[in-house]
Specification:
Length: 268
């Protein structure tokens, strides 16, 4: 028996051509992936007795179920099949559907992070309610649970992107990811005489909550739901080691429609 295989890859798409020849049959096949949700396969076989058979199949993964379809035909039969696989998880906030049937799972919760990709499972992302079900975790061993912010709204930020857990066999373990919501704002600041603010100085809002820090080049980064605010910058305990600034980004939001807002302010 002779077998040949030719794998090819184009960005996120993969295709593999294969051929096999034996004493009484010949088979030509093709299989591959399109993105991280759809895989397919097809083959055609010819027997020396004159019988020819054709088989085609495909599987598509959604956040809620796995959809499979196949078609087979030869000189003596024809078969079509469609199947749905998945799981149902009931938790304190409702019911969640998953694409796989497994015993040990992880329930991920990342509020407002709709569209964030789950690094452990191709094609899986956080749904509109902030949840996702991860299958195929290994019980009694450390598993890395990670989120990729690509795909989620620009007004949401993950304050953490990974956790490590060791689940029990047959358990559903909940993992919470913290998020911040609001506009991503960069404020280029300076003192009244044109100087830079001290690096790593802390930035407080009017409720005396830390909302940011001064980075290199006297630039402040904030994730805030407010289009305007009054901020305090402190780098010591005395009154001489602090200053105050105001920002207003309402007009920039309407004009630029950018995911990151740049503005300037003088800290007095």
């Amino acid at each position: 028996m002779l077998s040949l295989s030719f794998p090819l890859q184009f960005k996120k798409n993969t295709v593999n051509f294969n051929s096999s020849i034996s004493e009484d049959s010949r088979t030509l096949g093709m299989s591959g992936y399109i993105g991280d949700r759809f895989d397919y396969g097809s083959s055609i076989s010819y027997q020396d007795q004159g019988q020819t058979s054709l088989n085609i199949n495909g599987t598509y993964r959604t956040n809620y179920t796995t959809i499979g379809a196949s078609f087979g035909q030869s000189d003596t039969y024809q078969q079509e099949m469609i199947n749905l696989n998945g799981s149902l998880v009931a938790h304190s906030q409702g019911i969640l559907f998953g694409p796989d049937q497994v015993q040990t799972m992880v329930l991920v919760y990342a509020p407002q992070a709709t569209g964030a990709r789950v690094g452990n499972t191709p094609g899986l992302s956080i749904n509109k309610q902030g949840y996702a079900v991860i299958p195929y975790v290994i019980p009694y061993r450390l598993n890395d649970i990670s989120l990729d912010p690509q795909g989620m709204p620009s007004t949401v930020e993950l304050t953490e992107t990974s956790h490590r857990i060791a689940p029990y066999a047959g358990s559903i373990t909940k993992v919470n990811f913290s998020t911040k919501t609001g506009y991503a704002v960069f404020i280029n600041t300076q003192t009244p005489n044109g100087g830079h603010l001290p690096f790593a100085a802390q930035v407080f809002n009017q409720n005396n909550e830390i909302v940011g820090m001064v980075a290199q080049g006297s630039r402040i980064y904030l994730r805030t739901p407010l289009t305007q605010d009054h901020l305090y910058v402190k780098w010591g305990q005395s009154n001489s080691e602090e200053c105050q600034l105001d920002y207003d980004i309402q007009s920039k939001i309407l004009q630029e429609k950018q995911s990151i807002i740049m503005t300037e302010a003088v800290c007095k």
